Amino acid sequence: MSMQARPRVVVVGSFNVDHVWHCDSLPRPGETRAGHYRTGPGGKGFNQATASARCGVETVFVCALGDDDGGRLARALAAADGIDLRAEDSGEPTGTAGIHVDVHGANSIVIGPGANGALSAEFVARQAEAISGARIVLAQLESPVESVLEAMRIARAAGVRTILNPAPANALAPRELLAVADVLTPNETEFAALLALHSSERIDPAAVAGTDDEQLHHLCRTLLPRSTVVVTLGAAGAFVSHREDKCRGDEHAFYRVPAEDAQVVDTTGAGDAFNGALAASVARGGEGGFIAHVRFASLYAARSTEQPGAAEAMPRLPRQPEV
């Protein structure tokens, strides 16, 4: 990483228009339930870019948008938060998501990729200058794998750190993509799916949080021997596993960070809040090792759950001094 690089985060990913129904409980197959409807911006990429920008760090967002109201909404919101939007024009409609949220804040989501599925590696490659001048490149898997891989490869070639949020769990995350991630941030479901895909190890997602620390560290090292794995565990916090000789300023190769208390209203964007805040904090630098960045991201994610919505629920923080 160039020491002259500004604390910039480049996020490569998705923008969706979210259609959200709040109801007493999530509908079961064949069931019709009454609920309260609202719409707003979302998409894992945009949520994470919004979180990064609202943490006070210069943020570039690379995506694809349709020529429609959703695309115009994305441009307006990015401008309002000072996000440098790099959008590929697509003949597909802007991405959408249908979200059900119950009274406990739990959710179920169906995604219509639209333009997100049309983000091209060629367009990403044209953003090489912005990517190479960043401190962190953050990506998820609601965009084509080849486009995400292009961004990560450009970053690695320039000495820029990369964070891969391998979400959603059913997305393809090939070994070559994991190999260019400096930090991997799966939740329990994603972690179990990646282990099943890339190793002989198996674990029930519901058992991840309760697994012994040494065993969980072993599983993380099995999945990604050379890089850091941060498994987000919802209300149980996060588990961090480093390569033994690359602990990123931490005293221990593996440890847990407890979740922060929150008055939960809606968990829809909590994982994205964590990832965007983690990227912003690492980009900014500072003392205290990697654990300080994870603690910051955990607190930011907790606060994001106290408001309804995804991107619009990301807390706004004052701009911090650059390090």
From TrEMBL:
Entry protein name: Ribokinase
E.C. number(s) listed in UniProt: 2.7.1.15
Family per similarity comment: Belongs to the carbohydrate kinase PfkB family. Ribokinase subfamily. Belongs to the carbohydrate kinase pfkB family.
Record comment: activity regulation: Activated by a monovalent cation that binds near, but not in, the active site. The most likely occupant of the site in vivo is potassium. Ion binding induces a conformational change that may alter substrate affinity.
Active site: 272
Keywords associated with the record: ATP-binding, Carbohydrate metabolism, Cytoplasm, Kinase, Magnesium, Metal-binding, Nucleotide-binding, Potassium, Transferase
Binding site for K(+): 266, 268, 304, 307, 309
Gene that this sequence comes from: rbsK
Binding positions (substrate): 16-18, 43-47, 142, 272
GO BP field: D-ribose catabolic process
Repressor in keyword set: no
Predominant location category: cytoplasm
Gene3D superfamilies in the record: 3.40.1190.20
Function of the molecule: Catalyzes the phosphorylation of ribose at O-5 in a reaction requiring ATP and magnesium. The resulting D-ribose-5-phosphate can then be used either for sythesis of nucleotides, histidine, and tryptophan, or as a component of the pentose phosphate pathway.
UniProt binding sites for ATP: 187, 232-237, 271-272
GO cellular component, one term: cytosol
Keyword Kinase in record: yes
Domain Carbohydrate kinase PfkB as annotated: residue spans: 8-315
Cofactor: binding comment: Requires a divalent cation, most likely magnesium in vivo, as an electrophilic catalyst to aid phosphoryl group transfer. It is the chelate of the metal and the nucleotide that is the actual substrate.
